[in-house]
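Lecture 7, part B: from sequences to assemblies.

Below are the input chains for today's worked example.
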Amino acid sequence: MSTTAPPAAFTAFPGATISPNTYVDVAYEDKLALWEEVKADDRFPDYLYGCYECGICVASCPSARFYDFSPRKIAQAAAREDIELIYEQMNDDVWNCSQCFSCNRCPRQNSPGGLITLLREVAVRNGLGTAKEALEGYGRVVYKIMTTGTQISPDMLQPDAFPDWGPDVEKTSDNLDVWRRALPPETLHTTEMSWVVSEETLIELYLIWLHSDVMDMIAEADEGLHMIILDVMEETLEDAGYEI
Amino acid sequence: MPSDRLVVIGAGPAGLEAARLAAELGSPVTLIEKKDVAGGMPIHADYAALTHHFRPASEAMGEMVDAVAGNSLIDIRTGTEVASVTGELGNFSVDLTSNGLSETIDAGAIILATGFKHFDPGRETQQYQYWELPDVITIADAEKMLKSGNFVTPSTGKAPERVAFVQCVGSRDRQIGNEYCSKVCCGISSKQAIEIREMVPDARVFIFYIDMRMYGYWENEIYWPAQEQHKVNYIKGIITEILPKGGRLIVRGEDTTMGRPMEVAMDMVILAVGMEPSAGTSAMSGVLNLPTNKYGFIETAHDVLDTVTTTVPGVFAVGAATGPADLDDSISSAGAAAAKAVALLRAAAVSV
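Predicted structure of the full complex, as structure tokens:
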């Protein structure tokens, strides 16, 4: 493994951009501030060294095969500190990534997927309209994970919730009970939950979300969702003797 | 009384040239080679043609071997290894072993020319399945086939219709730990692409690259002719994996300048493997107490004014023992080290 030190912090300067300004209503300083927030993250130095544009990340990227999406362009824009292009990507491209991190095979040891994590977090934290829009369809998923501590349950596999899951989702969701009962293990016959998370674990999760900035991010993205989740969390925590 | 003898370790291109020149300058030389035959990697790995003028490697190396074999000042010891070295500039004692017999010789100076080994793609880059797929070979494997004059798809024995080169395998890769460029693979791949096109005129040849590094005259001697006369296809984008399908190999990558992912069927894939320090280079760095860089190559002054001087006075390192080097570099550094070593030996003799 390498022992090369990461490069000194990238320093943007006004005019570094070479891409056209496609968001004319947003001031350059505001775009720059978002990028500075990305770079200030502790994880940033591990996610970007430099890019020699070999395309191995695109070659290994499932999203790149189906969308007009390129992890290489994410890394290149970041390495060039092309503020206009980064802002454009933050409002669009970053939501086409499935966060599988296949791109971590990068020979330069960049993590385009990791950069996207940071770009998304900054987009959400700053309440970008496109972030709210992108996350709209996932309100139910977020609600489920955050309140039950467990992932998507079968009854959530509805065509409206997952428009990008293809035509079969309709066929499956119509006869979900039958499909599930056809599965051999009895524990999989349910349609309302995937597996149960113990109350102790759930309380721990709630406390983590409250004490980190996760709840604030959700408030930025969806105020209504934030309220509902908070209600559920408060009730459980109060019953367990915690004061919010 | 200091010894006026120069010991050269390794009888590849660099070692042969160092021995030849030192003898020409009047110094007695002992040239030590672990293998039973002199000539180094071009001979032992069955190289076909060299990059300049496509001259047969065996012919060029034969010339080098002949130049030392006929010289009464040069004592060639093949099948011989250096077990240990003691002493200092002017008065080294070099312990040799050969066929279980030991012998100690005196040396005033030492030139290390132990070279490199080819990166083994099976070691780390398992995604290319070099160890599993017979039709995934390296440029070293391809050299053997080209030398034999029978370039075929290994699994079928038939002439390939589509051949792909993948550049920078085991080089320029932080994850593998070889961050350096191996210098020669772009030129060798392009040279081989030309040879394949000449040997199998119906084959289409693709080179998938990150940057084509065609130094100096390789540009006009190899790169341009490969494109213009031999219709080799250069595509900027590296391959992420190779999947066997229907008797062929699907290579997955990105055509970066066109900006799109691609999956292309090939009959053969040739991995342009880079250089790593040879076992001899690693062993001798220990024996001679020479520091290596983090890649295991011998550390030299690494300066534009001195490419061969090590931290141990009287010991020089040349060729690919000090880092990736082409033949031109190896021969040049060997000559520089021979001249420096002989000058040092004379100065030592005078000062006594």
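Note for the exam: The domain at 28-134 of chain A is CATH 1.10.1060 (Fumarate Reductase Iron-sulfur Protein; Chain B, domain 2). Keep this in mind when comparing with the next example.
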